[in-house]
């Protein structure tokens, strides 16, 4: 990842572009990621929003964006991006639109849309080679409606629709792999608690033409059950336990950008969240905990340990 | 002027071509597919500029259409039936973006049971979404209506998308002679799209289609859309007058055929209204004073023209090629609402016919005229009549008998 200008957290933008005072929840991991993404992408953007938490960023007559915005619907934000991209291209080709009036088209969607209802539209946009950036803030449930189970919900999490027993019985859908199977030029996972890794990936994605898809794991205080001030710590645990692998798919290969060499036990990530409290109280559910740990271990056992080049181990945090 | 023999589908494609569209997001569905195939071939062969993109669903297609229109280009698309309903969420949504474009619907009955031939339940499901609606009866009208639809939707007092409807098979696949207007004359009638301030440009950031969180602003914007649609009535008349001046063809919001001295009326829309027209001629020849009212413009609803043409008539048979299940004919209730409380209006009788392309033969028009006349004389409307003949019932009974025999054979049981 030497292609980007960021090798050090001190190089990250210190001027932030997204306005403050939005109606997102305190400690929203999705908003944290969006702030960082927007700082890198800049205001020469049009965000195409799918129904989700972030629909409420722009409530008439306010918006935190300095660039443009279009709300579409839950299932078809990538098709909205298609219409805007095609229209801008046609305007340049046929109607004399100056190139400086062009914009990056960015889809903004939650996991409810990205993993489910919007997957068909996303697949179509990738297959058509649409030149756009797709950002999924993944809080692992239908967060805006009170955290019901979605296709992104992890095994064993309790949600508003899986209130008893071990919680959600299914497995989190492998969206990264589903996207990568389409062979787009770029797919990556990011998280707001790793701002340098995030910035390098967005910077890289920004320079590529074609479909570029990003999933940001988004710790969600209200949906996951933790204090808003813990949001960054939970994010770091997600990475250091190996639950959220930071990786990218580029040129047909998956590369892990940060391999936790000594993985923290998964239980310390789970125990910090109310949605997994039933796995610890009244007594530890060792079977399910072992199952979750085994799945994470199995994942990393299959990872080719190739990191190119190693992520700089500079002090994190303290942005701006 | 160039007169050629083309289908209703190709006439719709000619409308898009002459309108100098920039963009056509597309998805195939019978009986519409010929429209997008025709445009795709023209664009591929360099006969017209613009870009056609295949989407993965009608929901995506209408989203892309609205988003492109909101970026400031002239957009055309087409669908039918299940496709229109699959896109219905986005029809409501993009209408609120106030970014005009033209969507052609080729009417086809809705599942279940799934079928191919036309009725108007598809287009009427989109009645309340904010798209204006023009209903066509001939191939020439299809071409001309696409051009008029762009003027109407893009009118600064309106700025709403427009649906142009033609009937599957009866128009979509029927060849009729159609005048292809001269492109320079069309350019004069329909100048390039002026997006105004509703567009995306790097130098002028816009937030479009943002949320509102209370009934106050929500009602305000919804009322604005309604009033803009109502502005379409005056705009339509102006545009129709200009169209006639440019191309010599008159397409009023409501076609009134032999209505001036009529005592009785048929009221119908779409291509089946041409059957009603033929019935009017036959009945006139037999001494009846009867005419036909055919709304071309269904949204905004031209109730003023209905009141004008219906005043002083004795009876009117409203023939709906649709059925609001559990209620009845949609056009009937629209017309009834338009004339209710007005002085000197005819007694309405309601008929349902032509579902799934079922024919309405001349004898049924004669019978409907008789029922409507008798009702008007008695001052008492009969219950809505569902057109169906003894022969049709016998044919359907045959199919049911076959189905029972087969079921009995497969289950090894006795024949019922």
Q: What would a concise description of this structure say?
A:
By secondary structure, chain A is α/β, with parallel strands linked by helices. Chain A has ten helices and eight strands.
Q: How would you characterize the overall build of this protein?
A:
The complex is a heterodimer of chains A (320) and B (416). Chain A is an alpha/beta fold. Helix content of chain A is 32%, strand content 15%. Chain A has an 8-stranded mixed sheet with strand order 2-1-3-4-6-5-7-8, with helices on both faces. In chain A, strand 5, helix 6 and strand 6 form a beta-alpha-beta unit. The two termini of chain A are 23 Å apart. By secondary structure, chain B is α/β, with parallel strands linked by helices. Chain B folds into 2 domains: 2-199 and 209-247, Rossmann fold (3-Layer(aba) Sandwich), CATH 3.40.50; 254-390, Rossmann fold, CATH 3.40.50.920. Chain B contains 14 helices and 16 strands. Chain B has helices at residues 8-18, 33-44, 58-71, 81-86, 88-95, 121-125, 139-154, 183-189, 215-247, 273-285, 303-310, 330-339, 362-378, 390-411; strands at 2-6, 23-26, 51-54, 76-79, 102-107, 132-135, 162-167, 176-180, 207-208, 254-257, 264-267, 290-295, 297-299, 315-320, 347-352, 385-386. In chain B, helix 1 crosses helix 2 and helix 1 runs parallel beside helix 7 (139-154). The longest helix of chain B has 33 residues, at 215-247. The model of chain B has no long low-confidence stretch (mean pLDDT 97). Strand 2 (68-71) of chain A pairs parallel with strand 9 (207-208) of chain B, so a sheet runs across the interface.
Secondary-structure topology with pairs:
The complex is a heterodimer of chains A (320) and B (416).
Chain A: H1 29-41, E1 45-49, E2 68-71, H2 77-94, E3 104-110, H3 111-117, H4 119-127, E4 132-138, H5 175-180, E5 186-191, H6 195-207, E6 211-217, H7 221-225, H8 231-240, E7 246-250, E8 253-258, H9 266-271, H10 286-301
Helix pairs in contact in A: 1-6, 2-4, 3-4
Chain B: E1 2-6, H1 8-18, E2 23-26, H2 33-44, E3 51-54, H3 58-71, E4 76-79, H4 81-86, H5 88-95, E5 102-107, H6 121-125, E6 132-135, H7 139-154, E7 162-167, E8 176-180, H8 183-189, E9 207-208, H9 215-247, E10 254-257, E11 264-267, H10 273-285, E12 290-295, E13 297-299, H11 303-310, E14 315-320, H12 330-339, E15 347-352, H13 362-378, E16 385-386, H14 390-411
Helix pairs in contact in B: 1-2, 1-7, 3-5, 7-9
């Amino acid at each position: 990842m030497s292609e980007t200008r960021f090798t050090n957290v001190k190089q990250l933008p210190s001027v932030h572009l997204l306005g403050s005072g939005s109606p997102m929840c305190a400690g929203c991991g999705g908003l944290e990621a969006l702030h960082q993404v927007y700082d890198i992408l800049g205001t020469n953007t049009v965000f195409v929003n799918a129904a989700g938490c972030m629909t409420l960023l722009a409530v008439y007559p306010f918006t935190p964006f300095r660039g443009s915005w279009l709300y579409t619907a839950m299932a078809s934000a990538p098709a909205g991006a298609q219409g805007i991209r095609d229209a801008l291209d046609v305007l340049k080709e046929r109607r004399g639109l100056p190139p400086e009036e062009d914009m990056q088209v960015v889809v903004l969607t939650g996991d409810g849309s990205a993993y489910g209802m919007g997957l068909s539209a996303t697949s179509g946009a990738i297959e058509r080679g649409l030149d756009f950036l797709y950002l999924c803030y993944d809080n692992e449930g239908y967060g805006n409606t009170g955290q019901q189970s979605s296709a992104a919900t992890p095994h064993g999490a309790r949600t508003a629709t899986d209130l008893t027993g071990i919680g959600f019985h299914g497995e989190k859908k492998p969206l990264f792999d589903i996207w990568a199977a389409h062979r787009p030029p770029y797919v990556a996972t990011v998280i707001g608690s790793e701002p340098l890794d995030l910035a390098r990936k967005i910077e890289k994605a920004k320079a590529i033409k074609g479909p570029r898809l990003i999933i940001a794991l988004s710790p969600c205080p209200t949906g996951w059950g933790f204090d808003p001030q813990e949001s960054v710590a939970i994010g770091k645990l997600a990475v250091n336990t190996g639950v959220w692998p930071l990786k990218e798919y580029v040129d047909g290969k998956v590369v892990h950008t940060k391999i936790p060499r000594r993985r923290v036990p998964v239980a310390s990530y789970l125990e910090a969240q109310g949605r997994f409290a039933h796995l610890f109280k009244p007594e530890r559910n060792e079977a399910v905990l072992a199952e979750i740990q085994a799945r994470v271990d199995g994942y990393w056992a299959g990872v080719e340990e190739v990191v190119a080049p190693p992520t700089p181990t500079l002090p994190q945090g303290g942005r701006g | 002027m160039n007169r050629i023999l083309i289908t209703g589908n190709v006439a719709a494609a000619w409308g898009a071509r002459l309108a100098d569209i920039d963009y056509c997001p597309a998805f195939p569905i019978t009986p519409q597919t010929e429209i997008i195939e025709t445009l795709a071939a023209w664009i591929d062969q360099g006969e017209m500029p613009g870009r056609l993109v295949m989407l993965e669903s009608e929901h995506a297609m209408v989203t892309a259409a609205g988003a492109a229109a909101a970026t400031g280009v002239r957009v055309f698309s087409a669908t039918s039936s299940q496709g229109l309903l699959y896109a219905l969420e986005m029809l409501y949504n993009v209408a609120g973006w106030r970014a005009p474009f033209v969507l052609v619907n080729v009417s086809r009955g809705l599942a279940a049971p799934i079928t191919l031939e036309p009725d108007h339940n598809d287009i009427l499901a989109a009645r309340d979404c904010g798209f204006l609606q023009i209903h066509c009866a001939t191939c020439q009208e299809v071409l001309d209506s696409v051009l008029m639809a762009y003027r109407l939707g893009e009118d600064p007092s309106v700025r709403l998308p427009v649906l142009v409807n033609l009937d599957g098979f009866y128009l979509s696949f029927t060849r009729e002679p159609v005048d292809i207007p001269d492109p320079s004359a069309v350019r004069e009638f329909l100048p390039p799209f002026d997006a105004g301030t509703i567009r995306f440009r790097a130098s002028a950031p816009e937030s479009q289609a943002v949320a509102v969180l209370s009934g106050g602003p929500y009602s305000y914007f919804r009322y604005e859309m309604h009033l803009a649609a109502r502005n379409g009535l005056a705009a339509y008349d102006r545009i129709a007058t200009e169209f006639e001046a440019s191309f010599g063809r008159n397409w009023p919001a409501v076609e009134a055929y032999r209505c001036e001295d009529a005592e009785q009326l048929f009221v119908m829309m779409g291509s089946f209204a041409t059957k009603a027209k033929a019935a009017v001629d036959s009945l006139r020849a037999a001494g009846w004073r009867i005419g036909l009212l055919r709304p071309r413009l269904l949204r905004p609803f031209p109730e003023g023209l209905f009141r004008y043409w219906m005043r002083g008539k004795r009876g009117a048979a409203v023939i709906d090629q649709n059925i609001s299940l559990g209620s009845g004919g949609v056009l009937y209730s629209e017309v009834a609402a338009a004339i209710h409380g007005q002085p000197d209006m005819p007694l309405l009788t309601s008929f349902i016919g032509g579902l799934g392309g079922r024919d309405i033969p001349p004898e049924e028009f004669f019978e409907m005229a008789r029922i409507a006349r008798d009702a008007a004389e008695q001052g008492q409307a009969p219950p809505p009549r569902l057109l169906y003949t003894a022969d049709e019932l016998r044919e359907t009974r045959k199919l049911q008998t076959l189905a029972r025999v087969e079921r009995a054979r497969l289950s090894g049981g006795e024949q019922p």
